[in-house]
Write a structure and sequence with these properties.
281 residues, alpha+beta, seven-stranded antiparallel β-sheet, 9 helices, 28% strand, globular
Length: 281
């Protein structure tokens, strides 16, 4: 499917996460070890928050991440305290820039790995559930972007966890009503530059892989001279589809049907339970 990651901590160069680790996201784009597909070459995107802008910046491209020299230059030049990145393996929608993650609305960025099964069957009904004032901002044709705009419709800016649960609940209800047995498989991440919200969930209880870092203090003890770890700080945090390095105890797998919220060095993990939006119910 796809691979993605989100980082928060002190400002670091994007290349410290995207390129330099042994099993970096760029390596995963060509050689994913835990993904549904080995190669994720149908485009990529990076979104980050800077000190001088309220809105996130974004760089997306429909070419494979491993061969894009502009991405390497950008990742070397840009430093950010919070960023998300995504490499895409398309699941039935075109390879085009508007279908590359992250998707953006206001301060919010969204990335997704997985799919809405039989999306052409349920697409019209799901699109009609998007709030009219948001509909004009949909640019592409992916199920992922519709998921984002459904979450915005259901109150993402006020209650991220609740909005994502209502988004998932609607997709499952519409899917099953149209004969789709297991409508939704997802690991998703949304952020507004202050918090990182990640979810691992699937209708069949067999979601794609998702991990988070346990402690950068432990990493600093293991690698006391690594400038990247020192620069990130003890409260740095990563949530990602696959571990970047093979070191015991550094990564923890996020359980099935779980929502994780990371903010200001604190991590809160709760059960994720899809539910129908009140108006739709």
């Amino acid at each position: 499917m796809c691979r993605w990651l989100a980082y928060s901590g002190r400002s670091v160069p994007l290349e410290a996460v995207l390129f330099q680790p042994e099993h970096s996201l760029i390596d995963q784009s060509l050689n994913s070890r835990l993904g549904h597909t080995t190669t994720n070459g149908d485009g990529f995107g990076v979104g980050w928050y800077g000190r001088h802008s309220e809105l996130p910046f974004r760089y997306r491209c429909l070419h494979p991440a491993w061969s894009d020299t502009n991405l390497r230059e950008t990742a070397r030049a840009v430093r950010a305290p919070l960023f998300v990145a995504h490499v895409r393996a398309a699941t039935g929608t075109p390879t085009q820039e508007t279908n590359c993650h992250p998707f953006r609305f206001g301060r919010w960025l969204f990335v997704h790995n997985g799919l809405i099964r039989d999306y052409p069957v349920v697409r019209r009904e799901l699109m009609m559930a998007v709030a009219p004032h948001l509909f004009r901002w949909i640019e592409g044709s992916t199920d992922s972007e519709i998921m984002f705009f459904l979450a915005l419709t259901f109150g993402l800016e006020r209650d991220p966890r609740g909005a994502l649960e209502r988004m998932a609940g609607l997709i499952e209800e519409v899917g099953r009503r149209n004969g789709v047995e297991c409508p939704l498989n997802m690991t998703v991440c949304v952020t507004d530059g202050k918090q990182v919200v990640a979810v691992r969930y699937s209708s069949e209880s067999a979601s794609r892989s998702l991990f988070h870092s346990t402690s950068f203090r432990q990493l600093r003890a293991l690698y006391p001279d690594d400038p990247r770890i020192i620069a990130a700080g003890d409260d740095a945090f990563l949530v990602l589809s696959e571990p970047l390095i093979d070191v015991q105890g550094v990564w923890e797998e996020i359980p099935e049907a779980t929502v994780l919220v990371a903010r200001a060095g604190q991590i809160d993990r709760q059960r994720f339970v899809p539910r129908m939006p009140e108006a739709a119910a």
